[in-house]
Automatic annotation (TrEMBL), chain A:
It is an enzyme of class 4 (lyase). InterPro entries: PhnJ. Transmembrane segments: none annotated. This is Alpha-D-ribose 1-methylphosphonate 5-phosphate C-P lyase. Keywords: 4Fe-4S, Iron, Iron-sulfur, Lyase, Metal-binding, S-adenosyl-L-methionine. Its EC number is 4.7.1.1. The gene is phnJ. Belongs to the PhnJ family.
UniProtKB/TrEMBL annotation, chain B:
The keyword Lyase applies. Keywords: Lyase. It comes from the Bacteria. This is Carbon-phosphorus lyase complex subunit PhnI.
């Protein structure tokens, strides 16, 4: 940007908070991660002014790739208006002065926790995942020295045994989120705690997918159009969640639904977890079974008004 | 209500206002100043500086005030500030033998060159609540008597006395001693060398390190320690600016240091000799440096060919879990919404229960 252009961010901090050397170090880690899809690259993660476990890895990755002209979207649980998404968006508005949006298609960078947006991503977009535990084998082997060896030898039998034990016990694989994937036929990778519903969206995605784990100090990535296969068996193929219900607000039958408890007697409704997707559909005139219900709409309105406050 | 979980910007801003009000408390009570915290809650400031890895009493006092006395939160504040600071220089190694000692005791010898110096310690106070401290008129201007003779200058380390006789393992600088590992710039790596371990322990949570050290005394490990020496006082910090080429003194910091002397049976290659455990911390943090020295020795198991069997000897376990900023963050992140994953688990548990009931009915029918 030109020197004459107004500085739009809090001038007490470098653009996007991190100093340029740190960003450079993180970009080097990102380039390595993209070159070796699914491999966890150790990086010198910095202490951020947000708590570990609250998106420090994703924030450092976003801070390293964002430019002043980029538009940022932040979601948590698929929603733009959850408190931590609001908090992270506020952070970047302050330290980077970038434009923010709730529209998936308008965003250059989307930082996410626990979901992949329902709307398909396009080339040039960057999806930044917040990762609490980058190691897919950690629940099976607590030692980093051991899991690094297992990745080195591509020795993933332990994970297959775990999935097989589910089948032996329940008749099907009983993992619903953080469902392990094989990237580029080489590295076993944690997709972060997204529901397995979202796993197929990672495959052949035109966008760049970057994963930042701040506390564990690891970065990994999936380049565009890469192979990302959820682990399964020939006789027990991978399946995603389905619902008997449709979204109560927009009537969508193919989106990930959250269960909203309406009373303490079992009353509930199901609504899209992706708030922007749902609002878009309602704007197009789609209605779910409670789409005309004042109480249900009040719920949706509250969410939208909170958004309008920004 | 569900809407409350959704929250939003207004709720966040209101919560900031509310915490400011709560922090101030009853406005008829005078506001505490950071000077008062720095002067009168000095040990809290010391802990925050040590685990915050930043030697600045004023900022640590500010962090304590801002965190309403929650020291782990104050440590987090100081760390987050520290990471924005430029690194201007790297100091020379500090020589603690040249410390201006305020306290120095050895439990291994009755008397030592330089003498035992009790200094300010709670050790021999009876832990009776002192109601005089709660009195309206305050404590006045308490003054301790000055000793008749000044302390000797230069107090050799007790470990060096043993070293002279060859009874303790010699302290050999690491091959890469010029560039110590720096956890604030590099991710943890394993196997970890002693510099990485000591830095981790020095920044580590006092409670966690204390419990681990204690566990080695109770039998989860066994290093048979003696408190060779504990000292606390001011040391000079020196740097060598490139344009000068010689060392200049840039100021003093207070540090606490502990040398533990531990048993070692010897092996075919090594004669029986004592081994070392070391603890060092900013400020007056005696409990911390003693526990740190115990854990340091326990973590040296590999070096001495000992089997690492207990938690305090397991470097991945200790190093990955010692940092309270990391630990507090990850535990507290459970407060963040997890309803997408919870929905996935709800779906699964309903399915599993349905399948269970179907099996039961089928079994009953048969």
């Amino acid at each position: 940007m030109s020197a004459l252009e107004e500085v739009r961010w809090d001038a007490a901090y470098n653009f996007a908070y991190l100093d340029e050397q740190t960003k450079r170090m993180i970009r080097r880690a990102l380039l390595k991660a993209i070159a070796v899809p699914g491999y966890q690259v150790p990086f010198g993660g910095r202490e951020m002014p947000l708590a570990y476990g609250w998106g420090t890895g994703g924030i450092q990755v976003t801070a390293s790739v964002i430019g002043p002209d980029d538009t940022l979207k932040v979601i948590d649980q698929g929603a733009d208006d959850t408190t931590n998404a609001v908090s992270i968006r506020r952070f970047f508005s302050r330290v980077a002065g970038v434009d923010t949006t709730e529209a998936t298609e308008e965003a250059d960078i989307i930082q996410t926790r626990h979901r992949i947006p329902e709307a398909p991503l396009r080339e040039g977009q960057v999806l930044v995942y917040q990762v609490p535990q980058p190691e897919p084998l950690r629940q099976l082997e607590p030692r980093e020295t051991e899991t690094r060896k297992m990745h080195g030898y591509a020795e993933y039998g332990l994970m297959h045994v775990r999935l097989y034990e589910d089948i032996a016990r329940y008749g099907h694989i009983a993992t619903t989120y953080s469902y392990p994937v094989m990237v580029n036929g080489r590295y076993l990778m944690s997709p972060s705690p997204i529901p397995k519903f979202d796993n197929p969206k990672m495959q052949d995605n035109p966008a760049i997918q970057l994963f930042g784990a701040g506390r564990e100090k690891r970065i990994y990535a999936i380049p565009p159009y890469a192979s990302v296969k959820s682990l399964d068996f020939d006789d027990h193929p991978f399946e995603v969640q389905t619902w008997d219900e449709a979204c109560a607000l927009c009537g969508a039958q193919n989106s990930y639904l959250d269960e909203v408890v309406l009373d303490d007697r079992g009353g509930k409704m199901f609504v899209c977890s992706d708030t922007h997707f749902c609002a878009d559909r309602r704007a197009e005139g789609h209605r779910g079974e409670l789409g005309g219900d004042p109480a249900a709409l009040a719920f949706a309105r509250t969410a939208e008004e909170e958004g309008a406050d920004r | 209500m569900y809407v409350a979980v959704k929250g939003g910007e207004r709720a966040i801003l209101n919560s900031h206002e509310l915490i400011a009000e709560t922090r101030r408390g009853d406005t008829s009570v005078p506001e505490v100043s950071t000077w008062q915290i720095s002067e009168q809650l000095g040990l809290a400031v010391d802990r925050v500086m040590a685990e915050g890895s930043l030697y600045d009493r004023d900022l640590a006092a500010l962090a304590i005030k801002q965190a309403q006395g929650d020291l782990v939160e104050a440590i987090f504040l100081l760390r987050a500030y520290r990471t924005t600071l430029p690194r201007l220089a790297v100091s020379l190694p500090v020589d603690t033998a040249e410390m201006l000692v305020r306290r120095r005791v050895s439990a291994a010898y009755k008397d030592i060159p330089g003498g035992q110096v009790l200094g300010p310690t709670y050790d021999y106070t009876h832990r009776l609540l002192d109601f005089a401290l709660a009195a309206e008129e305050g404590v006045g201007d308490p003054e301790a008597p000055v000793g008749e003779t000044p302390l000797e200058e230069g107090m050799p380390h007790v470990a060096d006395i043993l070293d002279y006789e060859g009874l303790i393992e010699p302290e050999v600088p690491a091959e890469d001693a010029d560039e110590p590992f720096d956890l604030t710039r590099e991710p943890m790596s394993f196997p970890a060398d002693r510099d990485q371990r000591l830095q981790n322990l020095a920044r580590g949570d006092e409670g966690f390190v204390l419990a681990l050290g204690y566990s080695t005394q109770r039998g989860f490990g066994g290093t048979h320690p003696f408190a060779g020496e504990i000292r606390m006082g001011e040391v000079s910090i020196e740097i060598v600016p490139e344009e000068l080429g010689f060392a200049i003194d840039i100021g003093d910091v207070v540090v606490s240091e502990c040398h533990m002397i531990n048993q070692f049976e010897g092996s075919a290659e090594r004669p029986p000799q004592f081994t070392r455990g070391y603890g060092l911390s900013f400020g007056h943090n005696e409990r911390k440096v003693m526990a740190m020295a115990l854990v340091d020795r326990a973590l040296r198991a590999r070096e001495f060919g000992e089997e690492a069997r207990y938690p305090a000897e397991d470097e991945e376990f200790v190093l990955y879990h010692a940092d309270n900023v990391e630990a507090a963050g990850f535990v507290s992140h459970l407060k963040l919404p997890h309803y997408v994953d919870f929905q996935a688990e709800l779906g699964l548990i309903r399915k599993l229960r349905r399948e269970f009931e179907e099996r039961q009915q089928k079994d009953a029918a048969e």
